[in-house]
Amino acid sequence: MSIITDTARCSLCKEMFQASEKLINSGGEVWHEKCFVCVQCFQPFPDGLFYESDGRKYCEHDFQMLFSPVCHKCNKFISGRVIRAIGHPWHPDCFRCVWCDQSLADVGFVKFQGQPLCKACNTLVKQSGKHLCQICFKPIEDEPLFHMNMVVHPHHFNCFKCKKPLETMSKLHCGELVCIRCYDKMEASICVACRRPIEGRIVHANAQTWHPEHFVCAYCEKPFEGQKHYEKKGLAYCEPHYNQLYGEICFYCNNHVIKDVVNVLCKSWCVGHFRCTACDVLLALKGNSKFIFYDNRPLCRKCYDRLPQEFRRRLKRMDELKK
Amino acid sequence: MSRNIRKILESNRSKRDRELIISDENIGSLTELPGICSFTHLTRLNLSHNRLDELDPNIFSLSNLEYLNVFNNNLEELPGELRDIPKLRELNAGLNRLVQLPRGFGSCPSLQVLDLTYNNLTNGSFPGNFKYLGGTLRALFLGDNELLSVPLEIGTFLKLEVLVLRDNNIRDVPVDIGRLPKLKELHLNGNQIHILPPDLGLLDFSNPEKSFFRVFDNPLIDPLREQCESMKNNTDLFVKYLKSPQYLEVYTLYTIGVKKGNFPPLLKRDRSGKKSRKTPKFKPVEFGPLAFGAGVGDITPGDM
Ligand SMILES: [Zn+2]
Ligand SMILES: [Zn+2]
Ligand SMILES: [Zn+2]
Ligand SMILES: [Zn+2]
Ligand SMILES: [Zn+2]
Ligand SMILES: [Zn+2]
Ligand SMILES: [Zn+2]
Ligand SMILES: [Zn+2]
């Protein structure tokens, strides 16, 4: 030890060794203990293990950082056998068919949408026309989600509203992904008038929803505020305006017909007001109780028979002249 | 009084039923319905198909009456007291023998529907204040009467929706009818009309389910008759034709132009069989040029 100490110099710093000094001998060269370190981090080599490149020594960590390939699958350094395929290095064990998970290290593979498939799976995928998820690279069995220019499994994304992974079907709502259940709920509680979500009380009408203050008569635009509304062609009206626009006025009572309306002879009647012009008997449109009319007024059969014969003859003639 | 009538009256009185129908019971006089004029709870009274030849003037004490039906009786006149029934909305006096309406009848305050069909009414039958019904009247039925012209001042009946002038002897249709804003039904068939004023084109008959315009069975000038026939029941089209420049030309031609008064002959009609004429008071206006000369002035173009 001492003989060496007298003549030898450190391979790194070329200085002599002190008599009592510990020196490190490796591969026919000697170093000061403080000089036998990683050229990158200047730390001693753990367990004396070092890696050399270009005559310079590195600790395992820095050597890998600088020179080792990283597996494209597991993101760990690859020491030992490296598979280079599809432009990336892989651990042999990590290079597998993205569909069936079979190791591809020692068999042929096919590149499909940038991912490795075994030959058998490649044939199947091509036949089925399925997409590969661009996140997990597994085939997408159900409906794919087209999102941010990717084709992916919906379950890689969470519902914006309930935060649960999306199911097969999902929708975009205001640029956010929501599951179909939340979408239905949100859509149902969007006010059709202002297009904003409804937080508090909801008015359901015409199979749509409104803020109570936005549920208004389509004509006067006053809120109904719980009062009865009348629907026509998908729009809602307050009673006076519904009547003004679409109401039928009973020829007898001169009021708006509220319930069932009899529309004949260019006039309207409340069902209970559609009576024989002569004897007041209630006439029905359905069934056998036919009515006869003159001057667009209804007569029951009995009263028609009581008209003067001369008049009835002329009514018949009028009928013929009309045609 | 038959037991049946007594039962009906007693039941109505005890129940204070607002509706009373005594139709086709061979009633010759209101005296056969004792106390009827005290049934002040009534809103509807129907006495149709009887033999009534007059109405008790005390009828006006039925102060809640809204509807009175005396269709098919033998009435030659109506009591003027009808005007004192404040709520009377509808009066059906069709198929009677009326020659005259009572004086003051126009002041019935609430009358909306007036049916005088099949009577013997002439232009002289209307009281001077008839026009005041224009404030309330929605429907006026004057078919089968003896009118030579449309009753005067029809233009003031601004609420009129239905106007029936069928089967009279009317020759001249006043321009005012075209300005009745609510008119939806106009029955002019069975008259002696030659020509229609273009003003009728102002009527809104655009809703085919709610409009009605009949002018057949008239001695119309050829161009009108042809339009009428080709458009059949398309009231809207016909009305539009009336306001077209094309018709205005025709109208001018026949009223002041080269074809002035060049009208088809009047239609012969025999109405002697009318039941309403079986009354001594009625003297039929004989059908002939003299009668028309008296009833109708020269046709002049309306303000167009
Ligand atoms: Zn190092
Ligand atoms: Zn595979
Ligand atoms: Zn995936
Ligand atoms: Zn959700
Ligand atoms: Zn809203
Ligand atoms: Zn309104
Ligand atoms: Zn009614
Ligand atoms: Zn009847």
TrEMBL record, chain A:
Keywords (A to Z) from UniProt: LIM domain, Metal-binding, Repeat, Zinc
Pfam families per record: LIM (PF00412)
Domain LIM zinc-binding: 8-69, 70-128, 189-248
Gene3D superfamilies, per database record: Cysteine Rich Protein
Biological process, per Gene Ontology: cell-cell adhesion; cell-cell junction organization; positive regulation of integrin-mediated signaling pathway; positive regulation of substrate adhesion-dependent cell spreading
Any GO CC annotation of this UniProt entry: focal adhesion
GO molecular function, one term: metal ion binding
CDD domains the UniProt entry points to: LIM1_PINCH (cd09331), LIM4_PINCH (cd09334)
Protein known as: LIM and senescent cell antigen-like-containing domain protein 1
Species, as recorded: Oopsacas minuta
UniProtKB/TrEMBL annotation, chain B:
Pfam family, one: LRR_6
Name the record gives this protein: Ras suppressor protein 1-like
Keywords of the record: Leucine-rich repeat, Repeat
Gene3D superfamilies noted in UniProt: Ribonuclease Inhibitor
GO CC, alphabetical: cytoplasm
SMART domains in UniProt: LRR_BAC, LRR_TYP
UniProt xrefs under PANTHER family: PTHR48051, RAS SUPPRESSOR PROTEIN 1
SUPFAM superfamilies noted in UniProt: L domain-like
